Amino acid sequence: MINSAIDKFTLIKDSIPLVQAIEYYGLHPIKRGRYHWIKCPFHNDKNPSLAIYEESFYCFGCGAHGDVIDFVARYFNLEPLEAVYRLAEDFNVPLPEEKRLTKKEKKKIQQRIKQKQEEDKLYNDFLKAVDETYDYLCELNHLYTKIKQVINDPKDLELPEFAEACHNQDLINYWLDLLLEGNIQDKLFVVEEVKQWKLSKKL
């Protein structure tokens, strides 16, 4: 049984190029020099930091590494042997002494894949919301700074625009600090607070 498992792992690694598998699952490697690179799907990667070699990968951001089976197992939250069966099915690679997956086993794998896709979508939506909130706050902060810079006459200090700029800029800088340095809960808090704050401005 152990030898059979080893044969399956070896056959898959020998049959399916890592770059081809990564492309098949919807990622887009970029060729730079001798190797391919992608934004690492295993952490919040701003620039491509995961290097794809001939038979292995390594992320210089989070340290994730391994071969094609390790990548698929981690990407879809599967056990290594489940990743082997997934690759064999997707790339039509017949396995030695292959034990066909039962409907229950296939359903379990599909549920894990669906869960991973849903989690990825939620996380990507969260990252997009954080980026949009950050850009909005930066623009507003820049606007308030310009308002304060044009105040020359002491009488202008009583203008409502100046008072608003002074009051809101402190809050905006606090929110920006949380978006840059805070944890996920802090960032979710800021996204929601800014959303409610923008709604209140429209009233």
Describe, in plain words, how this protein is organized in 3D.
By secondary structure, the chain is of the alpha+beta class. It folds into two domains: 8-91, Alpha-Beta Complex (DNA Primase, Chain A); 103-201. The chain is built from seven helices and five strands. A five-stranded antiparallel sheet has the order 1-2-3-4-5, covered by helices on one side. The radius of gyration is 25 Å and the shape is elongated. The N and C termini lie far apart (69 Å). The model has no long low-confidence stretch (mean pLDDT 81).
What would a concise description of this structure say?
InterPro entries: DNA_primase_Znf_CHC2, DnaG_primase, Znf_CHC2. The chain has 203 residues and is α+β, with helices and mostly antiparallel strands. It has helices spanning 2-15, 18-24, 68-75, 80-90, 103-149, 160-181, 184-202, and strands spanning 30-32, 35-38, 50-52, 57-59, 65-66.
User: Averaged pLDDT, please?
Assistant: 81
Number of domains: 2
Gross morphology: elongated
Spatial separation of the terminal alpha carbons: 69 Å
Number of helices: 7
Largest sheet: 5 strands, antiparallel
Structural class comes to: alpha+beta
- Percent of residues in β-strands: 5-15%
Q: Percent range for helical residues?
A: 55-70%
Helix and strand run: HHEEEEEHHHHH
Unreliable residue runs: none
* Number of E strands: 5
Biggest sheet strand order reads: 1-2-3-4-5
- The whole-angstrom Rg is 25 Å
Protein name: CHC2-type zinc finger protein
InterPro entries: DNA_primase_Znf_CHC2 (IPR036977), DnaG_primase (IPR050219), Znf_CHC2 (IPR002694)
Organism: Caldanaerobacter subterraneus
Pfam families: Zn_ribbon_DnaG
